[in-house]
Amino acid sequence: MKSKTMNPVLDFINTLCNFVVLNFVFLITCLPVITIGAALSSLYYVTLREARGEYGYLVRTYLSEFKNNLKKGTIAFLILFLAGAVFLFNIVFWFETGTMAGTVLAGILIAAAIAWFLIVTYTFPLIGRFENSTTQTLKNAFGLAMSNMKSTFALIIMDTFVFFLCLYLSPMKLFMVLLGFAFVAYCQSFILKKVFEPYEKDVLALENTEI
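Below the sequence we write its predicted structure tokens.
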């Protein structure tokens, strides 16, 4: 838990160590692969709390939420993973045909894949923050992405920037293993916090309703 001391350097070191441990636990809970959805949802739950200034035990809270999000996060992950695999296969397949019809269909599928990516961007933070059915969460994710384009663009730019840094800078891979995933989620949480704020005043009104 964060304990405020008179020494800002010690506060920083304490916070850094907590995030390193959180990042490590996050990676461990991602290892079964199918639990990635639950892990991401729980990570965003913790980092959103931190972004709102609700400091607490990071790892203990994460593990508690991981248990709570295991079923819903796993179901959402499997749905999105299978949908993404279908989109990728069909895009490649129709492009390979080399026909005009194939190119048009591939273009339509690319547009659908972009919508899929927007849904992925918001789904796990939503699971971590709000109580909804999986179907409603996916609908809400798309609705939030489309109604908050500036925030959505900022989130995508952040993900893209990190991806290319990992692709071309070897030290970045080490950074992601040590701290990166928790740090990126924490940075994104400040954007997500502003997106979620209009709905947090009455969380119950969000349940089973479209945003």
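The chain has a mean pLDDT of 91.
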